[in-house]
Amino acid sequence: MIFLIENCKIEVIGLHEFFKQWFNAEIDNTDLNFSRLSNAIHEDFMLVMPNGNTTTKKELLVQLREGYGSHKSDKLPYKLWIQNFECRLIEGNTCLVTYEEWSEIEGRQNARLSSAIFRKKEEAPNGVEWFHVHETLFPIKI
């Protein structure tokens, strides 16, 4: 059980580090680099965005591929970090986690509370694959 929880935590942090590098163009836009993402997402993946819209794996991969370097800036780099990771439930090879995703783009902060369902998959980058994510924005006090 601890193995699965740690894999999920490493995956959440690792994928968001990939996003930071991808959107800042800190890594090359290659199929090999992008496969880190596509190999970590289940074929039936669904993302529920803060506005209630849903996105499939196929749609998400297109959006993210097109977003390469979109936050690159010579002045203020895009920042992205994870806080308050918590495992909420484990059933067999499935794990439900919550975490806060914080970002800063051009000095403006954004925060989301995310719930994610992972399934164990040995071939995935960290031994787990993303199956479902639901994001909710929460207000930032400045």
Give the helix/strand layout.
Blueprint: H1 2-23, H2 31-38, E1 41-48, E2 54-56, H3 57-66, E3 79-91, E4 94-105, E5 108-120, E6 128-137
Parallel strand pairs: 1-6
Antiparallel strand pairs: 1-2, 3-4, 4-5, 5-6
Structural account:
With 142 residues, the protein is of the alpha+beta class. It has one domain: Nuclear Transport Factor 2, Chain: A (Roll). The protein has three helices and six strands, in the order H-H-E-E-H-E-E-E-E. The chain has a six-stranded mixed β-sheet. A hairpin with a 7-residue loop joins strand 5 and strand 6. The chain is globular.
In short:
The chain is α+β, with helices and mostly antiparallel strands.
Q: Kindly report the CATH topology.
A: Nuclear Transport Factor 2, Chain: A
Work out the helix count: 3
- What integer is the average pLDDT? 93
Distance between the termini: 39 Å
Using the alpha-carbon principal axes, give the shape. globular
State the strand order across the main sheet: 2-1-6-5-4-3
The CATH level-2 architecture is identified as Roll
The biggest beta sheet reads:
6 strands, mixed
Radius of gyration: 15 Å
| Helical coverage, percent range | 25-40%
Low-confidence stretches: none
Number of domains: 1
Strand elements, count: 6
Taken as a percent bin, the fraction of beta residues is 35-45%
Structural class label: alpha+beta
CATH class: Alpha Beta
Q: SSE order, as H and E?
A: HHEEHEEEE
List keywords for this structure.
about 140 residues, alpha+beta, Nuclear Transport Factor 2, Chain: A, six-stranded mixed β-sheet, 3 helices, 6 strands, globular
